[in-house]
Design a protein that fits this description.
The complex is a heterotrimer.
Chain A (H helix, E strand, L loop, with lengths): L5 H28 L15 H8 L1 H34 L4 H12 L2 H14 L6 H25 L4 H8 L4 H30 L2 H6 L9 H11 L3 H29 L1
Helix pairs in contact in A: 1-11, 2-11, 3-6, 3-8, 3-10, 4-6, 6-8, 7-8, 8-11
Chain B lengths: L4 E10 L2 E11 L4 E5 L6 H9 L6 E6 L2 E2 L10 E4 L11 H11 L4 H14 L15 H13 L5 E5 L7 H18 L2 E6 L2 H7 L2 E6 L2 E6 L1 H6 L4 H6 L4 E8 L2 E4 L3 E3 L12 E6 L5 E3 L7 E10 L3 E8 L5 E7 L13 E5 L5 E4 L2
Parallel strand pairs in B: 3-8, 3-9, 6-7, 7-8
Antiparallel strand pairs in B: 1-2, 1-4, 4-5, 9-10, 11-12, 11-14, 12-13, 14-20, 15-19, 16-17, 16-19, 17-18
Chain C lengths: L1 H29 L2 E3 L5 E5 L2 H6 L2 H34 L2 H16 L2 H12 L4 H9 L12 H27 L2 H8 L4 H12 L1 H16 L3 H6 L7 H10 L4 H36 L1
Chain lengths: ~260, ~350, ~280
C-alpha cells in the first residue's frame, strides 16, 4: 500500500471522482436548500425559511402522513412474512424455482410490476387507495427482507437450536429465546431497509394509488412538484428525504455489519 | 448392575447410506464409555440417535429400562455437549448455564445456586457475566460442559469434546473430564476419532466401522487383544505379516515359519494376518535363534522412544520397531546398520478377519 | 420438520403468488385481448397487439430506447470498472464501507436524485451559471431535456449497481492470478486484457443486463430529464395505461420488456455457466 504505483494512484483518483459524481449533486441540493434566494446561481445568505414553508404546506404534510402509513404497514407485513420465508428457505436447500420467485420482485422493472398490479386490482374491481399501495409494496419488500435475513442465517450456527432443544426447550421457546434474538439484528436491518424502500418508492405507488389526491404519497407529491418546475421548496424536501434515507440505510448496514463480527 | 443405556438393533440410513447398521450396546451407570471410529463410521449418527435428534429406522433405545426411542430430545434426561459447543452467542455464561434449568421451571435463588455450583465445578465462577465471544476455546468448552452437566442428566453425551483444542490443553482436559465424570457420577458417552483420547479416558470403548460395532471392550482388550485386522490397525501402530497357518507356526513367504499365539484357533491352511506391536519387537546386534536379520531403513526420534523402520533381509518386508530411548542400541541406530529382530510368540496375534 | 417448513413458507408463497405471479401472468394474457371502446378491456382474442408492437413507429421507439440504454450501459461500465477494481484492491476491512458508500444513493430516493440533475443542468442551473460567471460561455448550453441529460441521469442512477456487480466478480479473482501473469512477464495492460478482463466477464454481463433492463424500462428519467420530448419504452407503457388507456397494448409492451429481460438473463446465465465449465475443464 505504501508504495502505490501510478496505476493505483489513477484508480484512486478515479474512485474519488466517482464519489464526487454520486454525492456532488446531493450536496448541491442540500446547500441550496439553505440559500435565502433559493437559486442555484448565487449564494444570498443562509436561511431556513424554505423548511418553514414546507411545514406549512398541507399537501406535503398529508403526503408524508400517507407515506408513513404505507411504509409502516408494508414494513410490518413484509418483516414478518419475509423472515418466516427466510427461515423456511434456510431450513433446507431451497428449490431453484423458489429462489427465482424471491429474486423476481427485486429484478423486475418497477413499471411492469406496477401495471401488473394495477391490471390485477382492476380485474378484481378493487377500490384503490393506500391499502392497495401497501399490498403492492409488501411484494418487493418481502423479497428484500427475505434476502437480508437469509444472509444473517449464513452466519447462524444451527447447533444452537439443537442445544436449546437438548436442554429441554420446545420449538416455540427455542424460536423466542434463541433463534429470534440471534437473527434479530438481521431482521431489524431488513425492516429498516424495507421502510426506506417503501417510503421512497414512486412508480408502483403511482399506479396503484387510484384516482384522487387522498392517497397521494410523498414521492408522488415530489413528482408533481418537480414536474411543475425547480423551486427552493423541493431542495428542502430533498434534503430531508435524503437525510432520512441515508440514516435508515446507514443504520441498516451497521446492524448487518455487526453480524459479521 | 443393570445397564443405564441399552441400544438394541438400532439402524439408521440416509438415502442409500447405512450410517448405523444394527448396533447393540449397553452403557452402565457411572461408566465412561467411548464411541471410537474413523470419520463416516456412524458414531456421530449413533450419538444423535441417543440424543434424539435422529429417529432410528429400527431398533430400540432404552434408558433406565424405559423405552425412549420415540421421546423427543427435549424430554430425554440426556444432555449433549456439542462439538462446536453451540453456546448461545447472545447470552452470558451464566444465562447459558441457567437456560436448561429454566426449562425445568427452576427460578430465583435455587437456580442461581445450581448455576454457580456448576460454574465452580468447571472453574469458571469468575467468568459468569462474560459473553461467549470473550472466552478462549478452552473456556467455551468448559461452559458447554457446565451447561450440560447442570441439568444432572442420567447420561452426558460428548461429541468430539476435545477436537477443537490444541494438544497441551487436550491432554489437560482428558484428565479434567475423567475427574468430572467421577465427581458427578454421571455416565459419560464420548464420541471421538482419536484413539489415544479413547484409550486414556474411557472405561470401555466401542470401536465402530461402517455402522457396526467392530469390537467392544476395555481399552486394554482393544489394544492387546484386537479381534480383527481393522481393530488392530486402527488402535495403535501394528506390523502385519500376511500368510497361512501351517503346522506349528504361521508361514509367511520369504520368512518361513513364525511363532504366534492361539494357533489352535485357526484351522490349518487358513489365510490370516500376523500382528505384532512395534514395542514388542526386540532388537539385538547379535544373531539369536529365531531372530531375523534386518537392515535399518530410517528412524524417527520421538523423545522417550525411538521408532525404527527396518527391512527384513531376504524378503525385504517392512517392519517397525519401537524402543525406549534408554535402550542400549538406541544411541547408534543409523541407516544401513544390520540388526537382528525377534518377538515372543505371545505377542504375535493371528487375525483371520 | 417438513410440515414446519411449509408453514414458514406458506404466507410468503401465498403473497407472492397472489400479487406477483398471477398479476404478471395476467399481463401476458391481457396482451391477447382487444382494447375496450372506453379504455378497459374487451375480452375478444386477438394477436393484433403483438403485430402493432413491431410497427415501425413502435419499433423506432424500441430501437431508440435500446440505444439510450446501451449508451448508459457503456458509460456505467467505463466509470464502474476502474472504481470496482480500486475498491477490490483496498485492504479488506475498508472494502465494505466503500461499497456501502457506493450503494447508499442507490437505496435512497430516485426522484430526488433525478431532480438534482435538473438543478445542475438547467439553463439557469449550476453548471451553466458557473460557466457563464467564469466567462467560458456567453449563451447557456442546452444541457437539459435531451439525450445527454437522459443518459447522464440513467448512469447516475444505476452506476452503483454496476459497481456492485463488477466488484463481486473482481474481488473473487484475488490478486494472485494477476501477480502470476506479471511474474511470467506480462505488463499490466496485457495482464488486464488476457487475465482480469476475461475472468470478470460474468460480472460485466450481469451488471450490463441489469443496467440495460432498468434503463429501457425507465420512465421517470426520460420524463424529467428528457422533458417528455423523447419517448422510451417505459414512457410508452406508462402512456398506454394512464393516458391512451389501451391496456392490452400496454400489457403487450410490458410483456415484451420482461421477455427481453428473460432472454438477456438467460444468455448471461448460459455465458457464466460456460465460462465456469471452461474453467473447470482448464483446471
Amino acid at each position: 500500500m505504501s508504495a502505490a504505483n501510478p496505476t493505483q494512484r489513477w484508480l484512486q483518483a478515479h474512485l474519488g471522482l466517482v464519489y464526487l459524481f454520486l454525492y456532488g449533486p446531493i450536496i448541491v441540493l442540500i446547500v441550496l436548500s439553505f440559500n435565502r434566494a433559493g437559486l442555484p446561481t448565487a449564494w444570498t445568505g443562509f436561511s431556513t425559511e424554505w423548511y418553514g414553508k414546507l411545514a406549512a404546506n398541507t399537501k406535503i404534510i398529508n403526503a408524508v402522513q400517507n407515506s408513513l402509513i404505507v411504509a409502516f404497514a408494508s414494513t410490518a407485513i413484509s418483516t414478518v412474512i419475509g423472515t418466516l420465508l427466510a427461515m423456511g428457505m434456510e431450513a433446507r436447500r431451497p428449490h431453484p424455482a423458489l429462489e427465482a420467485l424471491v429474486a423476481a420482485p427485486m429484478i423486475i422493472p418497477d413499471i411492469v410490476l406496477a401495471i401488473a398490479l394495477l391490471s390485477f386490482f382492476s380485474l378484481l374491481k378493487m377500490t384503490l387507495g393506500l391499502h392497495s399501495i401497501i399490498l403492492a409494496h409488501a411484494v418487493f419488500n418481502i423479497a428484500f427482507v427475505c434476502t437480508v435475513v437469509r444472509t444473517r442465517f449464513k452466519h447462524f450456527d444451527r447447533s444452537i437450536v439443537e442445544a436449546s432443544i437438548d436442554l429441554g426447550a420446545g420449538a416455540f421457546t427455542t424460536f423466542r429465546r434463541v433463534t429470534l434474538p440471534v437473527i434479530a439484528p438481521g431482521v431489524i436491518a431488513a425492516a429498516l431497509l424495507a421502510f426506506t424502500l417503501s417510503i421512497d418508492e414512486f412508480i408502483i405507488a403511482y399506479f396503484t394509488a387510484g384516482p384522487g389526491s387522498s392517497s397521494t404519497t410523498f414521492p408522488m407529491q415530489i413528482y408533481a412538484m418537480i414536474r411543475f418546475g425547480v423551486t427552493p421548496e423541493i431542495n428542502a424536501v430533498a434534503t430531508i428525504v435524503m437525510g432520512v434515507s441515508f440514516v435508515l440505510v446507514f443504520l441498516s448496514q451497521r446492524l448487518n455489519r455487526e453480524v459479521e463480527a | 448392575m443393570s445397564a443405564l443405556l441399552e441400544i438394541a438393533g438400532v439402524a439408521k440410513s440416509f438415502g442409500t447410506i447405512r450410517a448405523v447398521d444394527g448396533i447393540d450396546l449397553a452403557v452402565a451407570p457411572n461408566e465412561f464409555f467411548a464411541l471410537l471410529g474413523p470419520s463416516g463410521c456412524g458414531k456421530t449418527t449413533l450419538l444423535r440417535l441417543i440424543a434424539g435428534f435422529e429417529h432410528p429406522d429400527r431398533g430400540t433405545i432404552r434408558l433406565d429400562g424405559a423405552d425412549i426411542t420415540a421421546t423427543p430430545p427435549n424430554k430425554r434426561p440426556i444432555n449433549l455437549m456439542f462439538q462446536s459447543y453451540a453456546l448461545f452467542p447472545h447470552m452470558t455464561v451464566f444465562a447459558n448455564v441457567a437456560y436448561g434449568l429454566e426449562m425445568e421451571g427452576l427460578r430465583g435463588a435455587a437456580l442461581k445456586a445450581r448455576v454457580e455450583q456448576a460454574l465452580g465445578l468447571v472453574q469458571l465462577s469468575d467468568q459468569a457475566s462474560r459473553k461467549p465471544h470473550q472466552l478462549s476455546g478452552g473456556q467455551k468448552q468448559r461452559v458447554a460442559l457446565a451447561r450440560a452437566l447442570v441439568k444432572r442428566p442420567k447420561l452426558l453425551l460428548l461429541d468430539e469434546p476435545l477436537g477443537a483444542l490444541d494438544k497441551k490443553l487436550r491432554e489437560k482436559m482428558q484428565i479434567e473430564l475423567k475427574r468430572l465424570q467421577q465427581e458427578t457420577g454421571i455416565a459419560f458417552l464420548v464420541v471421538t476419532h482419536d484413539q489415544e483420547e479413547a484409550l486414556t479416558m474411557a472405561d470401555r470403548i466401542a470401536l465402530l466401522d461402517h455402522g457396526k460395532v467392530a469390537q467392544l471392550g476395555r481399552p486394554r482388550d482393544l489394544y492387546e487383544r484386537p479381534e480383527s485386522r481393522f481393530v488392530a490397525d486402527f488402535v495403535g501402530q501394528m506390523n502385519f505379516f500376511e500368510g497361512h497357518r501351517r503346522g506349528s507356526g504361521f508361514a509367511v513367504a520369504g520368512l518361513g515359519l513364525l511363532p504366534a499365539q492361539d494357533l489352535d484357533a485357526v484351522p490349518e491352511g487358513t489365510a490370516a494376518s500376523l500382528a505384532v506391536r512395534p514395542e514388542r519387537v526386540v532388537l539385538s546386534d547379535t544373531a539369536q535363534p529365531g531372530a531375523f536379520a534386518a537392515e535399518v531403513v530410517g528412524s524417527a526420534y520421538m523423545g522417550q522412544d525411538l521408532v525404527v523402520h527396518l527391512a527384513l533381509a531376504g524378503s525385504g518386508l517392512p517392519l517397525v520397531a519401537r524402543l525406549p530411548a534408554s535402550h542400549r542400541l538406541a544411541a547408534d541406530i543409523e541407516r544401513g546398520r544390520q540388526v537382528h529382530c525377534s518377538w515372543a510368540a505371545e505377542h504375535a496375534r493371528l487375525l483371520v478377519k | 420438520m417438513t410440515s414446519n417448513r411449509l408453514l414458514l413458507l406458506a404466507p410468503g408463497l401465498a403473497w407472492l403468488t397472489a400479487l406477483l405471479i398471477i398479476p404478471c401472468g395476467l399481463i401476458f394474457v391481457l396482451g391477447f385481448f382487444e382494447r375496450g371502446v372506453y379504455g378497459g378491456i374487451d375480452y375478444t382474442l386477438t394477436t393484433e397487439n403483438f403485430a402493432r408492437a413491431v410497427d415501425p413507429l413502435y419499433a423506432g421507439i424500441f430501437l431508440y430506447s435500446a440505444r439510450i440504454a446501451l449508451t448508459a450501459v457503456v458509460f456505467s461500465l467505463l466509470i464502474g470498472y476502474p472504481a470496482a477494481t480500486c475498491i477490490a484492491k483496498q485492504p479488506k476491512r475498508r472494502q465494505m464501507p466503500l461499497l456501502i458508500l457506493v450503494m447508499m444513493p442507490f437505496w435512497s430516493n430516485y426522484l430526488i436524485r433525478t431532480y438534482a440533475w435538473i438543478v445542475l443542468l438547467n439553463r439557469e442551473g449550476l453548471i451553466n451559471g458557473a460557466l457563464t460567471k467564469l466567462g467560458a460561455i456567453s449563451e447557456p448550453l442546452p444541457l437539459l431535456y435531451n439525450d445527454f441529460a437522459i443518459v447522464t441521469g440513467l448512469v447516475y442512477g444505476y452506476v452503483p449497481f454496476m459497481i456492485l456487480a463488477l466488484y463481486s466478480s473482481i474481488s473473487k479473482l484475488g490478486p494472485e492470478l494477476a501477480e502470476a501473469s506479471t511474474d511470467l512477464g506480462a505488463d499490466s495492460w496485457r495482464t488486464f486484457l488476457r487475465i482480469t478482463l476475461p475472468l470478470t466477464l460474468p460480472g460485466i454481463a450481469a451488471g450490463s443486463v441489469f443496467v440495460f433492463v432498468l434503463s429501457i424500462g425507465n420512465f421517470v428519467t426520460p420524463d424529467l430529464l428528457g422533458g417528455g420530448k423523447r419517448t422510451m419504452l417505459g414512457n410508452l407503457i406508462y402512456d398506454q395505461f394512464l393516458t391512451a388507456r389501451d391496456w392490452p397494448f400496454g400489457a403487450t409492451l410490458a410483456f415484451l420488456l420482461v421477455a427481453l429481460m428473460m432472454v438477456l438473463l438467460t444468455c448471461q446465465a448460459v455465458f457464466v455457466h460456460r465460462s465456469a465449465t471452461q474453467e473447470e475443464a482448464r483446471a
